[in-house]
Structures are given as structure tokens and as C-alpha cells.
Write a structure and sequence with these properties.
There is one protein chain. The chain is α/β, with parallel strands linked by helices and about 190 residues long. It has one domain (about 5-189): Rossmann fold. About 40% of the residues lie in helices and about 25% in strands. It has six helices and seven strands. α1 packs across α6. About 40% of the residues are buried.
Amino acid sequence: MNNKIAVMASGKGSNLQVILSAIQAGECAAKVEVVICNKADAGALQIAKDAAVPHVFYVNPKEYKNREMYDEACAAIIKKADCSLIVLAGYMRILSASFIQSFPNQILNIHPSLLPSFKGADAVGDALRAGVKISGCTVHYVTEELDSGKILTQACVPVLEGDDWYSLHARIQEQEHKIYPQVVHQLVI
């Protein structure tokens, strides 16, 4: 199997960093070949450059007429680099249907809830508002229906008395950082 992966990120890049660290430690057989960010100030860009990722791109959404054209440009980068897996690491854009169809069962996402509960942008807040006692995170394939693809693995996190969004999110992210590199490794070996 081709072990080259593309990582798409929008933010500080903590999931990218843990994947790169797992690779460096010999715990993940993937090779991060491409990093694409949709924000010029994304921390993931510097993390990728510091790790000497071969292809690091800021692709500005404002330079494209619509989502499909933007995604087409990103898909071309990924295909040119011959990546077998696309890992969404805090990527805060909804992917177009055409992009998802171009990479069937090749796009992974990590979501901060135990799917199918609390889909969407504020899963941590939704869990707190619902009063659940257990939350967590899910690694799943990306499909055209938001946060609905096949679940690959999950990790549970207790919701503690007095938790706020930040404390619960921090504990969920600890679990994300454990399970995401493991799933990537399993899919590329």
C-alpha cells in the first residue's frame, strides 16, 4: 500500500503534530507528503515546514469562484503527490461532493463526540448542553453527509462535574491525539 498521506488543516495543527511525532517515533508507517491549509496563519503550515514535509500549501479560498473550484485545486495537489489517504486535522471547511467522490473511503476525519451523537461544528458545547455523562471522539470516513461516514474507532471521555467547554475539549483532544495516529497507521500498512 502507498503510505503517502495528505493532511488538510485550518488551525494550530495539533493533530498534524501528533501524527508527525508518531511517524518519527516509528509508531505510524505513514509519510506526510502534502499539507494543505485554507488559512494563511494556520499553525499547521509552520509545523509542516519545520518537519520538512515535501509539499506545503496555503490555498486561499478567496482566489476561487466557489467551493467546487477550490476543492478541485486541492484535489489536483493531492493527486499529483500520489497520496493514498487524506487526513482532515481540524479542517474547518465542508468538502464538496465532487471532492469526496474523487477519494472514496480515502478521507478521514476526527470529530469531538461519540458519533452519531452531536454532529456538526460545536459537538463539545452540544454535549455539555445535553448533560451527557460520557463524550469522546470518533475517527470516521468522510461522506457527503456531514459526520456520517463509517466509524473506524472511538474513545470515551467522562464529562466531569464542573466541566466547561475548554476543560472537556482538552480531555477529548488528549484522546484524539492517541487514536488518530493509530488509525492512520492501520490504514497505510
